[in-house]
Amino acid sequence: MHINDILTIQDERKRSDSLRKHFAPYSEVIDVTGSEAVTMVVLVNLSVKRGAIKDLSNRESARNIMADKKHILSCIQEIAWQHSHNLKHPDARVSGGRIMVSSPLHYAGYISSHGLERELGWSHNSAAYNNAKMFCATFLWNGHVRNLSTILDEGRQVWRDSIQSLGLKDKNFDELVSFIKEYDSRPDFPPEVSLFSPQVRFFYHGNYVAITPVVSHTMMAHIQRLARRKVGFFARLAFPRSAAIGDLAGSMGGNINILHYPPSLRSSASGGLSGSRINAIMEGEYFFDTGCLFDKNFLAACEVLRNAKRFSTDRGRRQEKRYAISKMKSALVEWLDPVYEWREAIEEEMGEPISGLADSLEWRISSLRGKPSSALVRELSRVLNGQLGSHRKTRHLAYHYELMTPLKTILRKVLSEGSPRENPMPQLSRSEESHGSYLYLKGMRVYDASAMANPYLCGIPSLTALWGLIKEYEIKLKALSHTDVEFDGVAWFLREYQERGDTKIPAPKLSEEPGRLMRSGLLPSRYCDMTMDVVVRVHDPDLELAAIDHQLLQAACPGRFAGGALHPPSLQDEHYWCQVDDGDNLFKKLRRLPHSGRWVTPSTIQSDSLLETLDLCNKFSDLRPVSAGYALLEDPVERVGSLMVLHAYAESLISMARLVSPIEYRWKGWEVFAQQAFWGMQPEKCAMLMARA
């Protein structure tokens, strides 16, 4: 929107409210090109309290404000507290420094403020909240985001004329510019780490360094605008003392929008193994898992193939179509899976088919070896389309000319692969067997874990927290067992997940002053309780892991995960919750995991744009944005207050993960699971990235 569109509003109050709103950080940046003089008037009037000026476009009131040298000086002083990354979010008690840097380097498949038009925010004393607006409020000029401090520093004549038209003389203007340069020349990073700033430890280029994640003003403002456009799913956090956090939080009254993408787990497992299946077949019914056909992922995939809305780029179209076909195949695998489970139960209980079952479609499918006949594929296709046509959600997809051929092709491929239980396990060479051991933690319970993966995102806990869990486990196990085993990959299965938004009262802790206790402030957040399985891949060339006592393996397991308490299952439920296995034996256990859970795995489809990522995640509900590492904003340096010798500030990165049903890996086998499901840390030159191990 251009500022001239707002100035045409006749009602004085509505015009001022609209101007105030469009110069706020959460709004789309307003274009002021060609209207520099009136923009200068609005910016000057914004620097006083809301009730003091009724009409923000009033030139006379702006001239009176410009005549107040003390007020103008207080506005100039706030230039020193501009930032690119906000140190005071979410804790307003952090003080004494700012961060002013460019966006971090770009990493393919990871989303940061890189690629967004750079914007500057402000955070300092809440009493100076309005004073900061004159020189720090952003606007669009000649196609670029600017504010008054940067544009006057560049010496643009049109802005010099605009500010001098409000009564500022040449000499005073030169003094103004010199003051701007003076206050804007403060250090780009704080000299010490605040006691209230979080720190995490990473192994980086041969040394442990402390990392302090900080919030990009550009990224956070972008998320607020996406939320106002209702692009994606969002939750809202209410921050106290919002003006002390910064101009963005203050402009929204502390109600900050964050991305909200918790994992979607099925409430119960599909299929069944009871004798009622036999009666259903005798009565001419089918017991395929029809719930998979009503899943959002399957419906979205069908819409893609029906020429529904697609991305504008060729790469996006190809990527989306490939993913849609893979999702249709996954859904049809789940649709057929009860047949194979039932066949297995019949064979275990009776050893031979019951009379009357041999001619059933289910029995012929589960008995198939090799390629299916065209007649069998056609018959199964008729059943599939019949079930699609029997429900209002999928009626429009039944016998659709764009879907008939792809569905038959996918069914033929699924039937050709045969029963998942008949797939042979991959034969490992002696070297692979000796180097590949796995540690399986089953049914681990997590309470009060942080669902805030990073300041932008709520949902699945951070992948870096998962990596921190297994590295802490590795360190403790080495100390207890005196071995050199190394954990180089981790797979993560969520059995249950429940999110909560209650505020926690922090425990008191010792302050820097001897004998004095202090309590952290109450900050809004989201928490979750989970039940999860963790599979750790261990590099064990000397076969040391198998020789470690079982009680030592249990004793070394950490008691914390993502800020929450980590507990093993009760001994009544699972006595051997910590097991060492090779791939063959482990997979026999993993393929029997409950259908209601999901593996959190690296996604093959990635994007560098947050808007495109949200579009994909909204379309395919098995895709989720996750916190997947940090991009450094500086080289690690020695800094007072750091937990380690070296310290660096960093920006959190978002990537995409895929929630995979255990049925899918049961069909594809151990080899595919081992290749696709494991996460690992990949240190880059200036980043720590969680990616496929």
Q: Can you give me a brief rundown of this structure?
A:
This protein is of the alpha+beta class and 693 residues long.
List the SSEs and their pairings:
Layout lengths: L2 H5 L4 H11 L13 H11 L12 H8 L2 H9 L4 E2 L1 E2 L34 E2 L10 H4 L1 E4 L2 E4 H6 L3 H8 L5 H14 L16 E5 L2 E10 H12 L5 E5 L3 H4 L1 H5 L3 E7 L14 H7 L13 H10 L8 H37 L10 H6 L7 H16 L14 H14 L12 H6 E15 L1 E3 L2 E3 L3 H19 L4 E15 L8 E2 L6 E2 L8 E13 L10 H6 L4 E2 L2 E4 L10 E4 L1 H8 L7 E5 L7 H10 L3 E10 L4 E2 L7 E15 L1 H7 L1 H7 L2 E5 L3 E6 L1
Number of E-type strands: 25
Q: How much β-strand is present in the residues?
A: 15-25%
Instruction: Name the shape in a single word.
Output: globular
End-to-end distance:
46 Å
Characterize the biggest β-sheet.
Answer: 15 strands, mixed
Pfam families: Cas_Csy2 (PF09614)
Protein name: CRISPR-associated protein Csy2
Organism: Modicisalibacter muralis
InterPro entries: CRISPR-assoc_prot_Csy2
Describe the protein.
This protein is an alpha+beta fold. It has 25 helices and 25 strands. It has a 15-stranded mixed sheet that branches. Strand 11 (452-454) and strand 12 (457-459) form a beta hairpin. It is globular. It comes from Modicisalibacter muralis. InterPro entries: CRISPR-assoc_prot_Csy2.
